[in-house]
Design goal:
The protein has 4 helices and 3 strands; from the N terminus they run E-H-H-E-E-H-H. It is α+β, with helices and mostly antiparallel strands. The chain has one domain: Arc Repressor Mutant, subunit A (Orthogonal Bundle), CATH 1.10.10. The radius of gyration is 20 Å and the shape is elongated. The mean pLDDT is 85.
Length: 82
Amino acid sequence: MTIACVKPTDRYYDLKRLSEVSCLSVRTLRSHIKHHGLPFFRVGGKILVFYPDFHRWMSEHRKEKVHPESEAIADEILKDLL
């Protein structure tokens, strides 16, 4: 008999456990499910989130802040090159 190892990233998490691993509160996770399209499963009364779905969803919401000075410097360099 072979026992397959399940990686932590291939698991379903309830909101409490997902809250612990994501540093987002259960309340915030519920809000993201209700208003922002966080994918989930409901089994009976339990909400479960498949970790790869959560990771993909988080990646889609990634923002990179561009410092205004950095943008001005880049524009100046490009202008000098042209």
